[in-house]
Amino acid sequence: MAANSRGRAPGSPRARILVVGGGYVGLYTALRLQKRLKPELRQGSVEIVVVTPDPYMTYQPFLPEAAAGSISPRHVVVPLRRVLDQCKVVIGEAQSIDHAKRTATVTTLATEEEGTGAVEITYDELVLAPGSISRTLPVPGLADYGIGFKTVEEAIGLRNHVIEQMDIASSTRDPAVRDAALTFVFVGGGYAGVEALGELEDMARYASRYYHNVKPEDMKWILVEASNRILPEVGEVMGSYTVRELRRRNIDVRLETRLDSCQDRVAVLDDGSRFPTRTVVWTAGVKPHPVLAATDLPRNERGRLKCTAKLALDATTHAWAAGDAAAVPDITAAEPGTECAPNAQHALRQAKVLADNVVAALRGRPLTDYAHKYAGSVASLGLHKGVAHVYGRKLKGYPAWFMHRVYHLSRVPTFNRKARVLAEWTLAGLFKREIVSLGSLEHPRAEFELAAGGQRPKESS
After folding, report:
1. In degrees, to the nearest 5, what angle opens at C-alpha 69 toward C-alphas 143 and 383?
2. Where is the FAD/NAD(P)-binding domain (predicted)?
3. Rg, C-alpha atoms of the chain
């Protein structure tokens, strides 16, 4: 793609729609745009460019199941080039955006290899959907020992890590090493933390039957939450039930507690507790993507883009946003000033309205408001265990777990992925769980480097 090109062929103007981000909003917006703009794409009067750091979209609600081995990692992601066959997919990162000049500064793998610096991509319509990143705090030792849970790589790495800790505990003669290996600390009581903890504890409990000297009661699972409740999305009643359910499984749930430090592989809580541990999983919220601060677009006090109900940026033309990066007014709420929650349920629906409004703007037609009343939430707590609060109805146990699976199966993109996930679930119901750790995948050249006279890479987590 030529730098500084307006994307217009001589004598035939071409409108370029630039989509920044390949997550929920980016994928679904581009998918609907290429469907609604078929005539324009065929004629060459419109071009859709998607800039994303990864060549795939990750369906994050399935990350806990991927970590537990219920779903193959490759079925949790959707290849963008295959799905967005009418779009130009650029694997790179937007570093800054100058909307006044209609330009985005982008770095790609090629610019890094060439050493020529970032390129500028110009556009006519901008869809900004870079998503969010983990919100970390200046906790001593967190950068050195913490593990995130936002990407498929982190989910599979965490699975390998947990099984590896069980292997260490099984083979060591040092009680201190064994205790630290079998202590798992999760920080954050939202969806990511609770579901990841629930699925991995369930997986480790199952895996322990294949270890002659590791029993479920030998493992310590600790959930640390700064507020006085977990899973606020499912309501107070079901949140309280979740706490009771986790504690019934001997999981130590600590509310109104913070992680003060995890230096030297010791988790220190603000209530004075100290836990030697080799596993600290950080899922304590998210914050807007840094690229938003490198734009001339309007943002609110929390750093999210100010949007109208039509998903256009406030007091700005030719710019649109949705999802985690956008502060979208919830016009269905009784209380004025309420914003849509930054979750997958809203993101999927916002993408549809956003794409339709971009098409309407290009064709000179009226725009529509985004209005969706929040239906509720579902969460998995491990195999056959879950909680749900949907349309005012509260479910728990197997019915909630089943609803969780049905809902997310219906929402994962493409029939291909739906069929593969369903097939894996079916096979998992017929055969025993896989408990294999493939941690060596994280260092694929380790064996060759050793053979060539090098050293094995040291464990970093």
Report:
1. 105
2. 16-345
3. 23
Residue pair 192/149 in contact by the 8 Å Cβ criterion: yes
Question: Residue 143: in which H helix or E strand, if any?
Answer: helix 142-145
- Which pLDDT tens digit goes with each residue over 310-342? 999 999 999 999 998 999 999 988 888 889 888
* Per-residue confidence (pLDDT) for residue 428, from 0 to 100: 84
Residue 6: the pLDDT is: 37
Q: Going by C-beta distance under 8 Å and a sequence separation of 6 or more, which residues neighbour residue 282?
A: 134, 136, 142, 146, 147, 148, 149, 187, 188
Q: How does pLDDT run across 109-135, given as a tens digit for each residue? A: 888 788 878 999 999 999 999 988 888
Model confidence over 380-400: pLDDT tens digits? 998 889 998 887 788 899 999
Beta bridge partners of 274: 268
Backbone dihedral region for residue 364 (phi beyond 0: left; psi -120 to 50: alpha; all else: beta): left
How far apart CA 380 and CA 68 sit, in angstroms, is 12
69 SS3 class? coil
3-state helix, strand, coil in the chain (%, to 5): 40, 25, 35
Which domains are delineated in the chain?
15-134+287-362 (3.50.50.60), 142-284+376-430 (3.50.50.100)
pTM exceeds cut of 0.90: no
Contact 86, 92 (CB under 8 A): no
DSSP code, position 272: S
Report the candidate in 193, 166, 189 with the shortest Cα–Cα distance to residue 177. Answer: 166
